[in-house]
Specification:
The structure holds two protein chains of two kinds. Chain A has helices spanning 5-19, 47-51, and strands at residues 27-29, 35-39, 42-45, 56-63, 73-77, 98-102, 114-127, 134-146. Chain A is mostly beta strands. Chain A has a single domain (27-146), classed as OB fold (Dihydrolipoamide Acetyltransferase, E2P). In chain A, the strands form two sheets. A five-stranded mixed beta barrel of chain A has the order 4-5-6-8-7. In chain A, strand 2 (35-39) and strand 3 (42-45) form a beta hairpin. The relative contact order of chain A is 0.22. Chain B is of the alpha/beta class. Chain B has three domains: 31-123, Immunoglobulins (Immunoglobulin-like, Sandwich); 132-440 and 548-583, Alkaline Phosphatase, subunit A, CATH 3.40.720; 441-536, no CATH class. In chain B, 21% of the residues lie in helices and 23% in strands. Chain B is built from 14 helices and 30 strands. The chains are: A mainly beta, B alpha/beta. The A-B interface holds A 35, 38-45, 65, 80, 82-83, 85-86, 89-92, 95, 110-112, 124-125, 127, 132, 134, 136-137 and B 2, 4-5, 8, 261, 263-264, 283-284, 287, 289-297, 303, 315-316, 335-339, 357-358, 513-517, 545. Chain B: Zn(2+) 2 binds at residues 139, 392, 396, 435, 549. Chain B: It is an enzyme of class 3 (hydrolase).
Chain lengths: 147, 608
């Protein structure tokens, strides 16, 4: 199910309106800069990632196939993940994935495309209520553009 | 690298065993667990389950063992499940039972016109012969891995090797059959389960028979060697791997689940196993979900739990050695990577993979030395399993150089065990693959042969000659792997991929990828433009992303007390029997002395 151009324009307009009074360009993030360290005891967010929590950001990556067709989120990965590992579990996904909650459920590209995601950055552990999928880093209210 | 993904696609297959129901059509098969021809260690625990293919009346059902009511034989009434998992099928379950007396047991279940029958063999052991058992698993180690490791590590001249791998000169050897209940082709969960329980199971399963239960954790369990050791002896147990400690092979020492992917649960099962030394990768499943990088689904911090239980904890090579140097250390948890550790070629030479992020990972030989040092503080002896898990992880993506450097590393680890065993000659050592891969050495590749077509640089027969790897360093590794005349080592069962005829000096090989979610695996175009690369059309189904396991026998080498059982062709379940026998785990099976547990079975006459 690809995103209709009209929906794109519509959904893209909303954050613009929301943030219009304080019009501030979204900060651009890069996968390689999300974390400052990775050790046996876990990963640590980069200072900039923590600073941008709650703020609008852009991040480019690859859209992994959704866990469930009706899910309202997908997993954004640094490199193409063409099959979802296990499809029903967050085991064995790359450690630095970002979960993207889209404005419009089901608006998924099914071909593992390179995409640019714009939305509000959220940090910290969260368990998705429908799927049990645990994420550490999310972009919510997201608008997705095919690159 | 993540081979389990493709295993997850295998459907759960249930088998009808001893089924004589002509004309009855049902989507449900009938089964008795343990299955027909199961060989069971006397006094080992198992869950007994009878699955009918229909709803039955418990009052009209008769389950007997050697003609005597099963409830009487097993000392407890089976639990009746009228509609298992809400389906129109009935089951009977008797958890945690055991049979104490060796012999043949005919198990018959009859209800109406449904009838099933299986036969079990319950065996005793001789008296204890070995103080310690060390089981080395070269995961996926094929004969070609072993031969290539000997060529690279020891050298060969005029047809004679200039040395031997550490396990080449062991006194005993056997061919091992690795097939499972559901399939001629096994995975590492299934095969390790056979080694650690003596029972066959199915792809993806650990320490359970695969029944029709919906819940991964509700399948009939069989007792692992770790549980037996901890229940019956005062010995120590060690589990060491360079894969994740929750990965199939180390998990096989402790786990009971139908799905090896239950790694967060397996991490908990490792904790509850009371194994004294646990070392490897896979820390992500020990961290609470609130920690970035965690792969748990709860806030439990398993590392803290281990620490509270008096385990020393190490996350680097240095910390591991420091912990072992403390003479008071009797329990040790070492986690050196959130996922699988890096292999020998990357750690020692290429510095690729995740080595830059994790530069302080220990070597498997040092992990083996540390484990033995800590475990041998127990005066009652120990059972240690050491897995060279990356041999398989690199055979899958057709990255033979990496798999062979890890085979050399396994040889170094085995040498550590041999040196320890030489002191008292009371340690039974086995070195074995759990399954094989379709790989062979066909000759050499000589860059200096004329032309540009790489296949014409492959030398066979007299044209092969010998490769020109430099003499190995003191640790047994040639310091240069991309030599001008190298081994021609190829895999037969592959997806489509670009054959480059060269070692992958950057990151490990990724032979095939999917371009669309439901599309086929295709040759990874990233290697298309490597000079000399040619598209090699695979022979595997296009759902296969890497090379796959084979049914070829594995070659097992063994030495020390107990190794006399290792010869000829052996079923993988007999490896468990060899360990149990060397430790005398059912040495008193004919006396009443060992009968202690509450659900112990009253002896049944073996004769029919």
């Amino acid at each position: 199910m690809t995103i209709e151009r009209r929906e794109f324009l519509l959904s893209a307009a909303i954050p613009l309106l929301t943030f219009a009074p304080f019009a501030k360009a979204a900060e651009s993030l890069k996968f390689a800069e999300l974390y400052k360290s990775r050790t046996v005891m876990g990963m640590a967010f980069a200072d900039r990632t923590l600073q941008l929590a709650g703020k609008p950001v852009d991040l480019a990556g690859y859209m992994a196939p959704p866990l469930k067709p009706e899910a309202n989120f997908f997993v954004l990965t640094r490199t193409p993940v063409s099959v979802c590992p296990f499809c029903d579990s967050d085991a064995d996904w790359p450690a630095d994935i970002v979960v993207v909650y889209v404005k419009k459920a089901g608006s998924f590209l099914q071909d593992g495309s390179a995409v640019s995601v714009s939305g509000v950055l959220q940090t910290g552990s969260k368990t998705d209520t429908d799927t049990g999928f645990v994420s550490q880093l999310r972009i919510i209210d997201a608008v997705v553009k095919r690159l | 690298m993540k081979k389990i993904h493709s295993f997850a696609r295998f459907a759960a297959t249930s088998l009808a065993l001893g089924l004589t129901l002509a004309g009855h059509s049902s989507v449900f098969a009938q089964a008795i667990f343990p299955i027909d021809r199961a060989a069971i260690l006397a006094g080992s625990k198992f869950d007994f389950k009878v699955e009918f293919d229909r709803v039955v009346d418990a009052a009209k059902t008769r389950i007997s063992i050697n003609g005597i009511d099963a409830a009487k034989v097993l000392g407890a009434e089976p639990q009746f499940i009228f509609n298992e998992d809400g389906k129109k099928v009935s089951s009977f379950v008797l958890p945690g039972v055991m049979l104490d007396k060796p012999g043949s047991y005919d198990v018959v279940a009859v209800s109406g016109n449904a009838r099933m029958q299986v036969t079990w063999e319950v065996y005793a052991t001789g008296p204890r012969k070995a103080k310690n058992v060390i089981l080395f698993i070269g995961d996926g180690m094929t004969v070609a891995n072993r031969t290539a490791a000997r060529i690279l590590s020891k050298g060969i001249k005029e047809g004679k090797y200039l040395g031997r791998l550490s396990f080449d000169d062991m006194s005993n050897m056997a061919l091992v059959g690795t097939s499972g209940v559901d399939s001629i082709i096994t995975d590492s969960a299934n095969s390790m389960s056979a080694y650690t329980t003596g029972h066959k199971t199915s792809v993806n399963a650990l320490g359970v028979y695969v029944s029709r239960a919906k819940d991964n954790l509700a399948h009939p369990k069989v007792e692992t060697i770790t549980e037996l050791i901890k229940r019956k002896t005062n010995m120590a147990v060690g589990i060491v791997s360079d894969a994740e400690v929750e990965d199939a092979t180390p998990a096989g020492m402790v786990a009971h689940t139908r799905r090896r992917a239950d790694k967060d649960i397996i991490a908990e099962q490792l904790f509850f196993s009371r194994a004294d030394v646990i070392m490897g990768g896979g820390s992500a499943y020990f961290l609470p979900q609130t920690t970035p990088g965690s792969k748990r689904k709860d806030t439990n911090n398993l590392i803290d739990l281990f620490k509270l239980d008096d385990y020393a904890f190490a996350s680097t090579d240095k910390e591991m050695k420091q912990a072992a140097a403390n003479p008071k250390t009797r329990k040790l948890l070492g986690l050196f990577h959130p996922e699988n550790m890096d292999g020998a070629l990357d750690r020692h030479f290429l510095k690729k993979g995740t080595v830059p992020q994790f530069p302080e990972q220990p070597d498997l030989a040092d992990m083996t030395r540390t484990a033995i040092e800590v475990l041998s503080r127990n005066p009652n002896g120990f059972v240690l399993m050491v897995e060279a898990g990356l041999i398989d992880k690199f055979n899958h993506p057709l990255d033979w150089e990496r798999s062979v450097y890890d085979t050399i590393m396994l040889s170094n680890a085995v040498q550590v065990a041999k040196d320890f065993a030489a002191k008292n000659n009371d340690t039974f050592i086995m070195v074995t693959p759990d399954h094989t891969h379709g790989a062979s050495i066909v000759g050499t590749i000589d860059d200096n042969k004329p032309g540009t077509e790489m296949r014409n640089k492959v030398g066979v027969y007299a044209d092969a000659g010998y490769p020109n790897y430099p003499k190995a360093n003191k640790d047994g590794y040639p310091e240069k792997v991309d030599v001008s005349k190298r081994l021609a080592f190829f895999y037969g069962n592959t997806p489509d991929y670009y054959e480059t005829f060269q070692p992958k000096m950057n990151d490990p090989f990724v032979p095939a990828i999917k371009l669309t979610k439901d599309g086929p695996y295709v040759a990874n175009p990233a290697y298309k433009d490597v000079p000399g690369a040619v598209l090699r059309t695979g022979i595997l189904p296009q759902s296969a992303d890497t090379g796959t396991h084979t049914a070829d026998d594995g070659v097992l080498s063994a030495m020390g007390p107990g190794s006399e059982r290792i010869h000829g062709f052996m079923d993988n379940t007999e490896i468990f029997r060899a360990m149990a026998d060397s430790l005398g785990l059912a040495a008193n099976a004919n006396s009443t002395k060992m009968v202690k547990a509450s659900k112990v079975v009253k002896p049944v006459t073996a004769a029919k």
